Amino acid sequence: MLEIRDLAVAYGGLRALSGVSLSVAPGQFVTVVGPNGAGKTTLFKTICGIVPQAGGTVTWDGASLLARPASARAHLGIAHVPEGRQVFATLTVRENLEMGAYPPAGRAAWARTIDRIHTLFPILAERAGQMAGTLSGGEQQMLAIGRGLASAPRLLMLDEPSMGLAPAVTEAIFERIAQIHKEDGLAILLVEQRVAEALELSDHGYVLETGRIVLEGPYQTLLADDRVRRSYLGLGDE
User: CB within 8 A of 15, min separation 6: which ones?
Assistant: First the structure.
């Protein structure tokens, strides 16, 4: 479905990404982990068309995604839940969800998806008429995910959904993300700093450091790797 090969991105002559390759198959849960400044958000922005690539290819269903303008990519079935949530603060919860349903697939499936969103996040039904900017951080994150789901996507891209949230709220968000993948069969590409929790959810993971993929593999393989255990989990050799 999504195929990235040898992707390179540069800012002002400095390489933010170099030779990055990864793929997401239909219904697959893929996680990209790494420290701040590794290039994780840049990767997402390039997929979405916000940042231009300096080399490599990004294809969607076998066709070049880079040839499509950013405004057209959501219509292909790609939903981006950005870092920092970025809800429309002066719109109501319901209006935010309606904005997410703008692509044709979202409009066609609106009756079904709004019921699903309210099942996953009942608080969004309770707060339907409330201004999004008055929600708590956790509620805004639920709204941002709901807005992504409202487009009836084939791929849901989640950028640091735990950012700024209390551990208990983060756990609840991760539970819902796992539920979406398991019950709806939706492909998910997750960027996250909470390495253990993120990898545990995934079918396949990538470790991104200083703009390069340094490790990849299934959850068990990555968590067993000494480099991951030392650098990201604070564990030494056993």
Answer: 8, 9, 54, 211
pLDDT tens readout for residues 13-65: 789 999 999 999 999 999 999 888 899 999 999 999 999 999 999 999 999 99
Find the distance separating the first CA and the last CA of the chain, reported in whole Å. 39
What are the structural domains, with CATH classification, of the chain? 29-38+70-231 (3.40.50.300)
Residue 184's H or E segment, with its range, is: helix 167-184
* Cβ-based neighbours of 204, under 8 Å, separated by 6 or more: 28, 29, 30, 31, 216, 217, 218
| Global model pTM greater than 0.85 | yes
CA-angle at 222, arms to 230 and 59, nearest 5°: 125
Query: Is residue 162 over pLDDT 70?
Result: yes
